[in-house]
Amino acid sequence: MPNSATSPTGRGILFIVSAPSGAGKTTLVERLVEDVPRLKMSRSYTSRAARSGEYDGVDYNFVSRQRFEAMAASGEFLEWADVFGNLYGTSAADTERVLSAGDDVVLVIDVQGARQVRRRGAEATTVFVMPPSYGVLEQRLRGRSKDTEDAIQRRLQVAREEIAAFAEYDFIVINDELASAVARLEAIVLAERARLQRMHETAETIRRTF
Ligand code: 5GP
Asked: For residue 164, what are the domain limits?
């Protein structure tokens, strides 16, 4: 099934998924990579402390602020950003390793990070996940109940700013219902894989059999 995975000789595709905090992007992308073969979720580095139930090397690579800053200074990040006072970044080498092996990779990063990747001229397919409304986002953030009222207000304020960036992205997915939102994300990945530029060699091989 040529469209079920990237061409074996080809380079993988870089996907970026951004969304305001609380829009459910992590759950969505976790489901996506479970369902789609040869698509890996990137594991970011962060200076923030692990929350209960989070593990180093699983949810994030948790590092000290000092180590993070040293990595940033030596150019180890494809992009990095300060989000809610903590530093988050994507390792350039980790990303390159997946892409050059021919697998696709998805970065779940904020709007600032996505802008840096674009500015670098890296080829990426970008998706913005939106909650169905402000009211739904507020309900979800309160429902998580792990944040203080102050933290919730701060996240809502950032969400108001981030939502305005939707027009910078190639695709929009509204996270109204998990299963259908995952299905739409999958459709985006499969459509990217089916592009002529990626399928050209395979199609040419088939044509030669005629
Ligand atoms: P959290 O601390 O709740 O896991 O993540 C907070 C925010 O940081 C989310 O919006 C998430 O998308 C963003 N984030 C996580 N990893 C990265 C990264 O590597 N780069 C950037 N720019 N943002 C990230």
From this structure: 14-42+103-207
Q: What is the CATH number of the domain that holds 200?
A: 3.40.50.300
6 Cβ below 6 A of ligand 1: no
In total, how many domains does the chain have? 1
Would 180 be classed as within a structural domain?
A: yes
**Closest C-alpha to ligand 1, atom 22:** 113
Name the E strands within the chain: 14-18, 39-41, 45-46, 61-62, 77-83, 86-91, 104-108, 125-130, 171-174
CA of 152 from ligand 1 middle (Å) equals: 16
pLDDT, one tens digit per residue, over 13-27 is 999 999 988 888 999
Distance 34 CA to ligand 1 centre (A): 20
The answer to whether 170 touches 126, Cβ cutoff 8 Å, is yes
Mean predicted confidence (pLDDT) in 150-155: 89
Residue 145 is predicted with a pLDDT of: 67
Residue 53: inside a domain, yes or no?
A: no
To test ligand 1's pocket by mutation, which of 44, 62, 68, 158 has the most ligand atoms within 8 angstroms of CB? 44
